[in-house]
């Protein structure tokens, strides 16, 4: 699509032109869907988020006439919306379950559920004592299965910063697991995944 055509479309959308909005939607939907899917690993969830993202664009349509790069604007809106979703997913049961089923299968079930619950509570307590940023990085990289690059994109920080947060967090968790239970960190993490995503 030529830049001048897109500018015309954006001007039209800013004035409430539904047809212009439909053209922009059709132009960018596929790219935004793929971008969202990388983070949520669920087709249904990705589609729902896409609809919400484009709804946000429509609700703020009056400002589109001043947007120089709509693609950059749209991906910024998408990134912020995904991050909001991932933050809330940590406390919403339905979102936790959907991400759990879509992102991975639990291959190793912890045999003793009472003991596993104790492990989970301990790990959660350690995580709660960490900085909010360390918790965010841990949730994205270990619970949501994001790569360092994907987590860096969501949080708006460098890949190296993500790596430093993860190294610090993993070291703390490993030491805590060994000191409190004589366990490997993987055993403790299995309980956390089973009970707490």
Helix percent reads over 70%
Structural class by sheet pairing and helices: mainly alpha
- The fold-level CATH name of the largest domain is Rna Polymerase Sigma Factor, Chain: A
Number of helices: 10
- Global morphology: elongated
Number of domains: 2
- Would you list the SSEs in sequence order as H and E? HHHHHHHHHH
CATH class descriptor name of the largest domain: Mainly Alpha
How confident is the prediction overall: mean pLDDT?
A: 75
Number of strands: 0
Contiguous low-pLDDT stretches (5 residues minimum) are: 104-115, 191-197
CATH-scheme architecture of the largest domain: Orthogonal Bundle
Largest sheet: none
The amount of beta strand, in percent, is under 5%
The CATH homologous superfamily of the largest domain corresponds to RNA polymerase sigma factor, region 2, helix turn helix motif
Cα Rg: 21 Å
Ends distance: 42 Å
Protein name: RNA polymerase sigma-70 factor, ECF subfamily
Keywords: Sigma factor, Transcription, Transcription regulation
Domain RNA polymerase sigma factor 70 region 4 type: 123-173
GO biological process, one term: DNA-templated transcription initiation
